[in-house]
Specification:
It is built from 18 helices and no strands. This is TPR-like protein.
Amino acid sequence: MAAPQRPEQGHSRHPSSDTRRVAMPRRSTKGPLDVDASAIPTFQPPTPALQTALPPSPAPTSMPIRTASPAPSLLSPAQQNPASVRTRSKSPAARTMQLDLSLLLRPSLYAPVPTTPIAAPFLDSSHQPAPDTDLETLLSNRRFIHAADKATDMLTSGTISPSDTPRILELLYTRFSCLVICNQSTLAAKEAKPLSDLLARESSTYTRPYREIFLSQIPWPLRLLLLKLQVLGTADMHRRAIMGLYALSSECRTLAQKAKAEKDDTTFKLWTNRLADLGLRVASELVEMGELETARRHMGSLSSATTSSSTAEETEKMCIRKTLLLLKIGDTQAAKHTLSICSSSTNKLHLQVLEALTHFSSSDLPSAISSLKSLAKTHPQNPLIKHNLAIAYLYSNNVILASEILEALVTEDEVLFPCLLFNLSTVYELRTEKARERKLELVDKVAEVGSNGKSEMQVGGFEKGLAEFKLA
């Protein structure tokens, strides 16, 4: 007689039926790190502008909001790692003061700044600062390559406590910004990723009120720089940047509302000004991605978002930025209208220069040259007026006069900035067949002028790259 068969493990046989019970399928559940892909909207170029008007104020809240600058939520939940770099405390408020940044003090995270793109005369030993020069002196003398390496040496020296959050973040901001100025944005993005990951991971552990307190430890300029570096090199870089700016704008509106409800005028002004700044940054990204019509509609809705809470100087600065963006788009009528809003500004020179540039953008070169010549006579020490006048002469086919003005800016006024050097190199290409020799002579002149430390318009650092002289 055959032995009776045993039912399979995990199933039981009903006494009156051969039908086996089938285990119910596991119900899908979502943990804190799961993301519903359908909930992620597909980004389209934003037709409506960034909302700068604040909604009605909510009822006063008992949670005090710190007025220090917060930091952005840098990564999506799917990218976040729940592992902690420090021991958790039961009190979220207490945890905000225990951020452990020892992970960012490892020398292996940082590399020396490459000098191969730099023209050889700037690397001569006679032009190098002393090894013991402090960071502040290097920054004031615009020695940004040396400043970037100095900031790294200070971070990895072992003399900074991992819990000294303000000092570490200050040095990291110095390091990343110097790399960007030295045209090493790719290296800056690579080195900034550990900080971005850490801030995203840490901020995800807090509920909203405590998260705001945690993010207030991160300087606002560092948040903007990290956002830019995070999207650098991606296929849809500008779209991702716009999405990040909109996320920051939502935070600005929320904190401005709270400040208004608490009658904190200083904090309210801070966040509304940042909101207006983000609006222009969105417009700039739209221009860079070629969405000119969207950018025009966007700026048309920004109007005068800062006039109610900003000083005259802040309003004028925003007006100048908006005008330059409109001129870049080619909407000269809107640019003239924006200038008329700032007609009561105490600094008339900037507005007069912008008015001359509107003539330039409208292809009215005679009016642009006449305006710039008049301004150059009234303000002979202003190098930007002379530079714009030289470009106006260049576009009117007066290459020789344009060359004379640009060369005088370098040799006599000792003015150095990348746009001037690039344009003068272009003039050499138009005037002579020995353009390379003239460019190499210009490199030597600039190295000598920059090394004396007297140049007031030295923009982009002392060490000039080959690309600035069109030699790369």
